[in-house]
Amino acid sequence: MAYYSGNLIPKMTSNTTPSGVASATTYEANPAWKAFDQDDSTYWQSGYYGQASAIRYNFISPQKIRKYTMTCYGNKAPKSWKFEGLSADGVAWIMLDSQTGQIGWNAVPFREFFINNDNYYTAYRINVIENNGDTYYTYIYGIEMMGIVYDQKFLISSGDENDAISVLNKASSGETLIPKMSANIGNGITLSGDSDNLTYPLWQAFDRNPTNTSWLSNNKESAAIIMRIDGNDKIPYSITVQCGSSNLAPVTWNFYGSNDGATWSLLGSKSGDTGWTNFEVREFLLPSVDEANSYYKFEIIKSQNDDRKACQEFNIIYASDSSKVKYMKETERNFISHGMEKSNTIDLSKMFKKKVYIEQNSKSIGSGKVYKKLIDTSKISIKKVSIT
Length: 388
Ligand SMILES: [Ca+2]
Ligand SMILES: [Ca+2]
What we know:
By secondary structure, this protein is mostly beta strands. The protein has one helix at about 330-340, and strands at about 1-5, 20-25, 45, 55-65, 65-70, 80-85, 95-100, 110-115, 120-130, 140, 140-150, 165-170, 185, 190-195, 215, 225-230, 235-240, 250-260, 265-270, 280-285, 295-305, 310, 315-325.
């Protein structure tokens, strides 16, 4: 069963803390984060004569927003607006919802809006077109954004081998594969790659000092951080990147894994990931990684201003695999009790370590463990079975 998540925006205490970025095209005295501070006594205030302004929130990773809420009062409340997501190349705002004639906010100050959105966007905004009549300002007291959460359903395959989906979760403490480093070799880790080694060595991307120390590539053309991790058995969940200078931040990159340091498999990539600000932290999920490697390579193809590449801090966060679904025997009872129901929805595009699909069309069952006698067709109606 699917249901709406809680608010995915953290309780903001400034435009950039604790995470993500709140901003608005205009503001006066009360900046954007005050609409995201989970306090209904504070508000974002548009600029003077800025009734038609937009207020946005950038997540640290793309989200599929399916619902948003607003809290507003009086004639400074928005009357018509568009709810929009920013395209991956950061160029176009895509309209996901539009509202007109939203009046009477003092009587109903809290409103929920449900949207039919199947795409992941990192930034969303409320783009106000007009307010309820105040000549000078628009105020919004609260904005929340929610996604969809699915119960952990699973499928049982129809082949000889029973299988199930296991859901890959982030390790609860967000632990990293590379410990704190003070040299390129140590703690079972060997770092190598392209670096201006004297002032900006590789290990400075792993020294847990995000403010003063950085890795910098040695030229404009190539940049890679190679990490060898002795005896690694942990599966990567995401990578995190922080850059002190937005100009040197990676906008196009590949992330590889290898077991010998010679043959590399692509585990994740990004292109045109622009809009970096200084010291911003971005986290990129690696949803299809399903095994541990002893070598990883972060290769940066292009930085934001096409110059050299740098990272203040880089790391790989590993996954915990706590919700693995148990092996199920293919009995009629298990099928009826645990098989997927037609009306259920599973989001197969994200976060699954393994995918198993139910064949929707009639086909040969193969070597066939067919429970001819056990299937009670009053419970499960079989439309067509063919056996070869
Ligand atoms: Ca507020
Ligand atoms: Ca550092």
